[in-house]
Input
Amino acid sequence: EGDQDNGGETPGEGDQDNGGETPGEDDQDNGGETPGEGDQDNGGQTPGKGDQDNGGQIPGEKDDQGNGGQAPGGKPGNTPKPEGNSPDKGNNSTKPNVTVKPIVNGNKATVTDEQLKDLKNKGTLIIDLQDTNKTDVSIEFTADQIELLKDKKIEIQIANGDVNLSIPTSVLTNGSEKTSIHILKLKDIQNALSPVYDFTITQGGQVISQFSEGVTLTFNVDDSRVSNPDNVKVFYWNPSTSKWEPIGGSYSNGVVTATTTHFSVYTVFETSSEEVSSPGKSLVPVQQNGKELPNTATNSFNWLLIGLTILLVSCAALFIFQRRKMLN
Output
């Protein structure tokens, strides 16, 4: 084949000016095509032409690597529509991040095994709760799902519009038992820059409150209320001292992020103080119905103390019994 300027052509073929064409083929002006040859959408081409391996291509015409070229006479610079798999399909059947909308029934949200099938090792499962408008919701996972998530070292991220939780599955220390992550929105607190939330993880009926690895909390705040970004921190409610105590955090553009190794009640304050307290009850976290939260930390400590006392009394009684037996 010759180029279009010098008229060198394969016998029977002419350039676009003199109308020389392969029999049955027309130029672009009248839309004629070689029988069986389609437009750029279906990648049709003259048999034996346009393949990158044999170089059959009109000089100046852009070839598509996906379909191996196109019939002479195509518009220079026009690339046919790419064919093949989309980024989410084909050989790469897994993705590092998978976003799912859970099935919500009452106050329980669940995900299906099908929604988890595309998770990749060390990926992130993002559970989108923003459309649920729930102030009290538990995300439930079956034992099989927890086993899968832990095997793949997945990070569970939960987003509801107010706050994001990023929970590494390494903190689920009770084996592969079924797991519930409870998110409870409390009544707003005076001077707090964000909503107030109580977070709880229960696995196999056991509350996991201390974590071997950090859990990341990300709160959205009203940027217009921020005076000094350096003083915007995440605080947790310490029921033992009845004070809000800081866990730190960094603030930028209406978002404050902090890491914690335990779950409790959290919110955001702007203050230079190391604690936030009040002589009244205006800063005490309460549920939406106005009831105070059960002091689970204190109750657990009380049961632990009772159990320890019973153990000590039993040991003392056993010692006395053995002593008397020896004397007799």
Q: What stands out?
A: The first strand starts at residue 95 and ends at 100. The helical segments are 113-116, 143-151, 296-327. The first helix runs from residue 113 to 116. DSSP finds three helices and 16 strands in the chain.
